[in-house]
Every structure is written in structure tokens, then in C-alpha cells.
Amino acid sequence: MPLQVRLPDDSIRQLPDGATGTTLAESIGPRLAEAALGVRLDGGKLQDLGTPLLDGQKVAIVTSKDPEALDLLRHSTAHLLAQAVKRLFPAAKVGIGPVIEDGFYYDFLVEKAFTPEDLAAIEAEMMRISREDLPVVREEMPRNAAVERFRAMGEQLKVEVVSDIPEGETISGYRQGDFYDLCRGPHVPSTGKLKAFKLLHTAGAYWKGDERNPMLCRIYGTAWFSQKDLEEHLKRLEEAKARDHRKLGRELDLYSFHPEAPASPFFHPKGTVVYNALVDYIRELYHKYGYREVITPQILDVSLWKTSGHYENYAENMYFTTAEEREYAVKPMNCPGHCLLFGSAKRSYRELPMRIADFGRLHRFERSGVTHGLTRVRTFCQDDAHLFCEPEHIKEEMASFLALLKEVYDTFGFHEMRVALSTRPEKRLGSDEVWDAGEKALADAMTEAGMAFTLNPGEGAFYGPKIEFQILDALRRPWQLGTLQVDYMLPERFKLRYTRADGHEGQPVMLHRAILGSLERFMGILVEHTAGAFPVWLAPVQAAILPITDRAHAYARQVQEEAQALGLRTDLDLRNEKINAKIRDHQLMKVPYMLVLGDREAAAAQVSVRHRHAGDQGVTPTAAFLERLRDEARTRAH
RNA sequence: GCCCACAUAGCUCAGCGGUAGAGCACUCCCUUGGUAAGGGAGAGGUCUCCGGUUCAAGCCCGGAUGUGGGCUCCA
């Protein structure tokens, strides 16, 4: 019996009985048949092109233009990878092979980890299978039959996966030539559609991500619709590598790492300039937003950490030390110290909100293997502050914080932000009423600030709900920076009290908040975001002074003195080098401005200005240029 | 912590059982040069550390330390 389907343009098409997406695409035209990857039925999810069509269905042929098509392609490429591995390493057992951001991976249980040469061979085999253009065919069977089938194939990991699926359900799998894999699908119609892919690297990964399970060997890869897209993506990876803050930090002489202090940065003079500029900026805003800064001890008695709960919940991340038979811990957080500070006097509602900021150095023991450059270290400072306030003032404190946060992110040019609200977890302290109030306050404050946010149900801290702020950097990579957490637990544990307006005792609420998060990590992000070309206000050297000959040295010194008087950071290059060499060296150090000084400039009290990006800007009176530079720094232009 | 890889001059790297190399950077000399590398000379290394194999180890084998890629984005 023939059937009728409706196309996206609302036209009706007659098809023979048993028609599939393939039949339809072929009936429309050979070019579409070639481009077709799947179908979308009645506006639903993407499905195989070979799915049988039903009478009266709305059918859309999906090609590479569909937003979901790339995932389909990548998933099929993961299968292609598994097939190639099974051909070359028949003993390998397949794990899972999902699509990830920009690519895919596949896990294998093997005796010996894959080498880079293996990877090249596997990639070549994938190419061969692609040229074989094997049809990819869906097969369905009851769960128990699937369990038996994978058991017979010796694929113990797949047996485990299928066994986790409820009994009685139908299982789908896909066959392409000699390879069969459990998969929900959908997939491309044949392996010939997979052309632009590359295997990137291998890594160990625990089966199901659980470190009690055996370690599998994971192969990461990427796949695109065209060679051009693939190459562009590889170029982006190169670009990210070129911006790697570990590499730039060394090249720009910002910081270094030493085995004597693993995962702990040493900031060089230039890195320290940037670091301090960040601190100065945040301090300036603290003044504007009514914060007061405090300095609190580094090492505190364990009794404090027992009161705060860190001793029970956080000890594995803490450093301990003993002196005169008394046990101490190096602080991993400032909050308990701030509670002592709050409790050091009888407090009145008139003193609230009390906003206590602390750039104290923190030490957290991170397991070896998880540390990374500046972004995951064992010692760092945060732009940390705690706001002690009356419960009814939570909302306005948040509003003020959000304004501050926006101001900071704008300054760095982070205009795109993602915000997530994490709500009460299963295991938590405090009553439901308190959680209701806290979550509502956070949500309302966000809404009133006009910030869209997503929900992470159950992801809050055990002591209160929290908001996390993510920004996107120049390469559109997300980074979590700021956080705002409502805490009812610490004030309770430290028995913090204040006298309310009605004369009775109240318990303050504590808000934990940070904007840049860890200054170390933020600097790493900033280096990658700017590729090391810091805006003038952060640049370790704001202008390099480059005399052309010895005759200009005296004038060059004079220019430096003038610049210094205006609070500018300059580098005077008196080396016996040609001007080209001097320019090149400072250009490589990404100095924003280079001032070229010869006889002509010296005679006219001018500087010849070269900008690191815009190039030669011509001559200008020295005083005018220096004032302009000072203003650029002062306004924190980016 | 676990899997895999790597560790040679300040940096980037070559050397692959037989007396340690290059480029850049550094020091000195010549050169005073107008918008991305002028020329020459010199100095610099218990080849990460500790054991082992060998007549002989930077190189082969253990171990330690550090660094790097990762350790669900769930068929």
C-alpha cells in the first residue's frame, strides 16, 4: 500500500510501501540522496535515514546543515574508531564511545596502552573503512538476547552496560561490515560519510569514571563535515596551545614553578605587577562598595577547624603542623577566621551588614595529578569577602554584590556570562524554611538584576545554596570565576549573635563571595584571554623606551623620569643593539607601546610612538603622549 | 591517588651503550644603526635524583621526584 508523507514545505509526496528516508531522498533528487544523513519525523528527534516511514508523517531529510547533524557524525566516527581498533587489536574490549564538545572519545580495555604510532595506524584503518563505504544498519533485539550476544562476543563491558538496562526493553545495535556495537543511535547511513576526522590523543580513564574500577585506555578524536572545518578546528587548538599560560608565563617572565614547591607559583617581578594591579583594582572597588579589609592568621589551632566543620569534611585538603605539642592547620579558607573576628565583640544590627574582605594566602592540598599551571594550585589568594548581615537583608546584599561583579567583568571585557543557581542537596543542614528563604533570595536577586540563570538542582553546598558565575574568554572557553553562597551553618557553629533593633538577640547570615575567585587562576585565565598582551593598566611594562643611538641616551633617561613621575611603568633599553632588534624584543614581550628616540625626537621633545598591534603611530610631544598613556591606564581601558 | 608519556645548558630541542651538541638568551669586542633579529669571540651541563646491568650508561632495567595528557560531556 503506498503511503503519503508531508515535507517541510507542506508538499505531499507519494511513496511506495516500506519506504524509508533513503527512498524519499532518492525520489527528490540524487544530490539530496547524497547529502542525506538522517530524518526528522513529525518534528521529533533525529533518526536513521533507513527508518521506515509511516503514512501521514511529516518528514524532514536531515543534512549536515542541521544543528544536531554534527553530533550524529561524531558518534558515527566514534564507531568507526572502535571498528578500526577491533580490526587492528582483536583482543581489545570496547567500552563506551560518546560525543563530546568538538569531538568524541572511545574507551577500550587493552593489555597495553595505545602508543602514538598505534594511533596513526588506527586512523589509517579508519580511512580504509571509510573508503569501503560500509552500510550502517540498525538491528533491534530484546535485552536478554543482547546480553547473550555480547557475552558470546566476549565484550564483557558491553554485557555490563546492557545488564544495567531494565529487563524486557528493546535494545538497538548497529552493524557496519564486520563490526557490531550496542548503540541507541542514530547513525550516518554508511561509513563513506565519515571523511574529515583526526585522532588527537590517548588518556587513561576509569571504567564508568569510578576510580575503584579498572583503568581503560581512552582515545580522543574530532570529526567535522569538511576538511576545511577540521583544519580550522585544529588551528583553534594550535591557537589555544600558543596561548597556554604556562608557556606564556615563562616567555613573558611572569612566574615560574619549582619542584621544591609543587603546584605553587613563584611570581616574578613582572607577574607581581599584574597580580598587584588586580588586587589594587579590587581594593578600589571595596572602598566604593563599603567593604573593609582585614588581615588574619595563616596557621590556626585545629580546634577552630573542628568548630567550623573543616576538620571533619575538608581535612584531606588541608596541611597540618605541630608546635609545642599543639596541633595547627594552615588555613584553606578565610571564613572560620572571619567568624572569630565577628565574634570578638558584642555586635549590633547597626554594624550590619559587616563586609569583611581578606586577600589572605590559602593553602589547599590538591592530589598530585589534578594540579595544572596557575589554574589548579596548592597555594593561592582569593578576592574573598564575607558579608555578615541580618536575614532580611540578604537580598539587597546580593543585589549590591551583583552590581559589583558586573562592573568587574565589564572592565575585563567579559561581557558574556553564564550563571547557575545550585539548590539544596540531599545531605544538608538547616530547616526547609531556611533553605526556601535562601534559594528565593538568590533567585529574586538574580531576576531583579536582569541576569538569566540555569538551575543545578541538588548541587548546592551542604550549608547553603550558591550561585556560580562563568565567563567566556576570547576563545569562547567557559571559566568559572565568581561565586556567591548563602551560609547559615557557620554562624550557628560559631554561635554568632547580634542585637536586633527590638533588643533581642539574632543570628546573622553569612554570605561567602568572590568575583575573580583565585587570583592565581584568574591571572592564568587572563593570560590566555589576552594571549599575554595585557591592557595598559595591567601590563608589567607599559612603554619601552628605545634610543636609536648612544646620542639619545640622555634624552631617553629624561623621558623615563617623566614617565615615572606620572606613575607609569617603563623599560629603558640602552643595549648596544639596532632599533630593529630592540623593537622585535619588546614586541615579543607584548609591551603595549614602544617609544623610538633618535636625534630628531631629542631635539623636539617628542617621541615616535609604535603600538604593539597598530604599528608606527608617528611622532607626538612627549608630555602629551605620557599623559595620554597615564589616562589609558587610569581608565583601565581594554 | 590511578593509567600513559616526558625529564639533556637559562629557553627550545638534537644525541640513542664508547671523551656531551645546535639555535636563541648571557658576557666581552667591533659596529652608532630610524620601526620585527648587524658581525665576531667567549663562558655555560655531577645529561632530575637513587639503585642495578655492563669492561663501559645521558642512552638498557628498577624505584623516587617533578611535569604533561586524562580519569562519564554517561549505549
Shape: globular
Domains, number: 4
Average pLDDT reading: 92
Report the total helices.
20
Give start-end ranges of low-pLDDT stretches: none
The number of strands is 35
Distance between the termini: 68 Å
What tags apply to this protein structure?
9-stranded mixed sheet; 35% helix; Ubiquitin-like (UB roll); single chain; 638 residues; alpha+beta; 4 domains; RNA-binding; 5-stranded antiparallel sheet; Threonyl-tRNA Synthetase, Chain A, domain 2; BirA Bifunctional Protein, domain 2
Helix-strand layout with pairing:
Elements: E1 3-6, E2 12-15, H1 21-28, H2 30-35, E3 38-41, E4 46-48, E5 59-62, H3 69-88, E6 93-94, E7 99-100, E8 103-109, H4 116-132, E9 137-142, H5 143-153, H6 156-163, E10 170-176, E11 179-182, E12 196-206, E13 215-224, H7 227-242, H8 245-251, E14 255-256, E15 266-267, H9 269-288, E16 292-293, E17 299-301, H10 302-308, H11 310-313, E18 319-323, E19 326-330, H12 335-342, E20 347-348, E21 354-358, E22 361-363, E23 379-389, H13 394-411, E24 417-422, H14 432-448, E25 454-456, E26 466-472, E27 478-487, H15 489-493, E28 498-499, E29 505-506, E30 509-518, H16 519-530, E31 543-547, H17 553-565, E32 570-572, H18 579-588, E33 593-597, H19 599-604, E34 606-611, E35 615-621, H20 622-634
The chain binds one RNA strand of 75 nucleotides through strand 7, helix 6, strand 10, strand 12 and strand 13.
